[in-house]
Amino acid sequence: MPRVLAIETSCDETAAAVVADGTTILSNIIASQAARHAPYGGVFPEVASRMHIEVIYPVVQQALNEAHLGLGDIDAIAVTRGPGLPGSLVVGLNMAKGLAFGRGLPLIGVNHLEGHVYSLWLVDAPPVPAVKFPVLVLIVSGGHTELILMIGHGQYQRLGGTLDDAAGEAFDKVARLLGLPYPGGPNLEQAAQDGDPAAFKFPRAWLEGTWDFSFSGLKTAVLYEVKKQKPGVPFGPDETPLDLAQVPSLAASFQAAVADVLVGKTVAAARQFEATEIFVAGGVSANKTLKAEFARRAEIPVRTPPLVLCTDNAAMIAAAANFRYLAGQRDALDMDALPNWRLA
Ligand code: KG4
Ligand code: ZN
User: 168: Cβ below 6 Å to ligand 1?
Assistant: First the structure.
């Protein structure tokens, strides 16, 4: 039963976790920097890497403490190698290399997106439901919208992805247009609760004949609607001229448009590629409207991670590393960060 200590610093969460057997979480520490980036309305890369440096050591220490383990009990060190912010990735990589070198432990570099996929293997209570491949995977996060056919462990075929904004990025940008605070996704979801999803007919980019997505037209449509409501009133990111009473319905209509396209294309791809299951992972998979829409329209089972594992964490990196560890992957101590690393 391998025990993997994993480190994740690809964006604005400094995270460390210990996972046994790729499925059982012994500890899962996440230090979020969201509050520090909120004034900028997005992640400020220099601030992110400095904050990772400040907290990485205590975060790793706490992950070991909460697992009641020392480094001597760990079988491998895993770390996110990419994709992500270069200055953030190197902080985690250097910490992981130091631990691996100091203790003579195997070092395993993990693709952040593969981590999101393996968040579906982490369960509250064993046994882990068996997986029969192929599985259709939708990764929807702040940086990615990827539709992937998973043929086996570590084997991916990329079907398509976003041509412009990632789904989470669209949530964040539209939230900002509506005067909602960063991070936009959860705040927009909350605002949408009191809104009418049919109030505004926002466009859906189906991009027929491809498995790609596009959200920039939808974002622009929301912008036009906002401008139409109070023409001629200038506004910046922190002051919207919007009729505040309209915010819930604008949010709900936008959210419905995103969910419609994500679910429609994923379900169609699952049918075409004869997938046995649909996995939805990444920050946006926390969205309740998206989950409800999948439950309503999917013809096969749909798995989403538990809420804490939707957004960035290190437990998912450990889970992915476990399969690579068992398959014999060992990375060199001079491994570089891969800021634009694709999964397939
Ligand atoms: O996976 P993640 O933590 O980071 C990346 O790898 O990008 O995803 C963060 C993204 C953000 O864009 C955030 O707004 C979005 O996920 N998000 C949500 C929700 N919770 C997080 N979007 C919609 N609804 C949510 N409940
Ligand atoms: Zn992520």
Answer: yes
Residue 46 confidence (pLDDT): 86
Q: How far apart are CA 146 and CA 159, in angstroms?
A: 8
Cα 54 from Cα 67, distance rounded (Å): 22
Between the CA of residue 43 and those of 39, 81, 89, 204, what are the distances in Å?
A: 10, 19, 14, 28
Query: pLDDT digit string (tens) for 103-140?
Result: 999 999 999 999 999 999 997 766 777 899 999 999 99
Residue numbers in the chain where pLDDT is lower than 50: none
Q: Is 284 in the pocket of ligand 1 (CB under 6 A)?
A: yes
Residue 36: per-residue pLDDT: 83
pTM value is 0.93
Q: Ligand 1: does its nearest atom lie under 6 Å from the Cβ of 142? A: yes
CB burial string 39-78: b at 16+ within 10 A, e below: eebbbbeebbbebbbebbeebbeebbebbebeeeebebbb
What is the helix (H) or strand (E) element at residue 29, kind and residue range? strand 24-32
pLDDT digits (tens, 9 = 90+) for 25-61: 999 999 988 888 888 777 888 888 999 999 999 999 9
Q: What is the DSSP letter of 121?
A: G
Q: Which residue's alpha carbon is at the smallest distance from atom 10 of ligand 1?
A: 142
Domains, the chain, in order of start with CATH, read 3-122+309-326 (3.30.420.40), 135-304 (3.30.420.40)
- Residue 112 CA: nearest ligand 1 atom is 6
